[in-house]
Amino acid sequence: MNDFLRLLFGRRARLRWIHLILGGALAMPYVFVGQLVVGPAMDSRYVFNDLPLQLLSFAVGLPLAAVTAAVFPLTRPLESGAVRSLCGIGADRLAHGPARTWAAKGRAAAWFTLHLGFGGIISGMSLAVPPFAGFLTALPLLVWLGGDTLVELPGPLDHTWVLALAPVAGVATMLALAGCAAVSGTLLARWAPVLLGPAPEDRLAAAEARAADLAVRNRLARELHDSVGHALSAVTLQASAARRVLDTDPEFVREALAAIEDTTRRTVGELDAVLGVLRDGDAPGTAPAPTLAGDLAGLLRRTRACGLRVTSTVGVDPEALPPVLSREAYRIVQEGLSNALRHAGDATSVTLSIGIADGHLEITVENPLERAPSCRPGGGHGLRGIADRARLLGGTAEAGPERGAWRLHVRLPMKGPA
Fold first, then answer.
1. CB 105 within 8 A of CB 74
2. CA 44, 47, 53, 58: dihedral to nearest 10 degrees?
């Protein structure tokens, strides 16, 4: 019994009933337009007081509703939002964008017509049945209190047994109304994913949007890893070196502190630029992205301040490089030097070579192999990020031990996919 009452009057049933009432409210303008057509056609001035003419006006208005849904693409997202909130349909089973193709518009029009059709009928019943059911339920009491002065019954109802059954009939009428509303709501909920669900083109667009979002996330992850990771490694080593010679070499400590200040200030600017992408979609941040042309000298200076001897050979004019290539090359050099800082052990030298060969920009970073790069928990993404950057530019990246040294070698085409 409880399950039966929950089916008719539970929270889901009540929300679906509200959804049907909403459909009836949306149907009213179309009914009024139907009256303007039916009245002159049937030569009647009182369409509103004639139930058959009202039903005919309702039938005339429904095709107009279908046309409206087909003409206005936003009908589908609006109806999807109402179905998700009131009918208990999961968001993943509904399309949330405007209908673009004629097939999608046709399904949206069919749904809108069904919503208004069922909603108009249930709304009309909801207006008429409760007063009638209340009258039947109170009929014996009215007759007992006032007799014929309050209620004048037709002959067939002027019987004691009929009066006794009137409250039962009133309750049964309300249950019938609730049953009709529950069945209508269930049918609409079952048809909603079919008529308002995503079409193949919608699924394709959603997949493309997810792929684009994933690409942005990966790019942001690489930028954060390269800029912040390098800065933390450099600042840690600079602070450690300064602490060791604090009492014996004040000049070195002063240089290390200046390098820490420069590194952190620059990294905050890069971090703000990356977070600006998160705040503003894909808009540029407040700080420009570092490039090989404008920032290589500062990167080498900050790295040397960590106590690492860097021997650099630059056989190309960085100003002549394309902006995208210059930016990605800077990040690759930065990550290569960061790996040397983190994993060089007691070795204190690294060799950097940048040049052009066979139409490719070649970047080589070598340091003595005191220990192999470790795969720390949650880390080890630097070499993978370098490989991703090289692959996106149509190049290659190789890293590993070679003749007693750890060698990173990257080849980037001077002209290729940007």
1. no
2. 130
C-alpha closest to that of 226 among 215, 237, 238, 218? 218
What CA–CA distance (Å, rounded) separates 196 from 198? Answer: 7
- The answer on pLDDT for 151 being more than 80 is no
Q: CA of 155: how far to CAs of 149, 152, 160, in Å?
A: 16, 9, 12
User: Looking at the structure, do residues 177 and 267 belong to the same domain, yes or no?
Assistant: no
The verdict on 307 and 246 lying in the same domain is yes
Whether 233 has a pLDDT exceeding 90, the answer reads no
The model's pTM is 0.55
Specify whether 192 is located in the same domain as 273. no
Residue 183 is part of which domain span? 2-198
Helix (H, G, I), strand (E, B) or coil at 159: coil
CA separation for the pair 209, 262 (Å, rounded): 39
Helices (H) and strands (E) in the chain, counts: 11, 5
What per-residue confidence (pLDDT) applies to 252?
78
Alpha-carbon dihedral sign for residues 149, 154, 156, 162: negative
Contact 184, 20 (CB under 8 A): yes
Kindly give the pairing relationship between strand 349-357 and strand 309-314.
parallel
Does residue 391 fall inside a structural domain? yes
- Block residue for tokens 């994913």: 193
Residue showing tokens 């993404």: 381
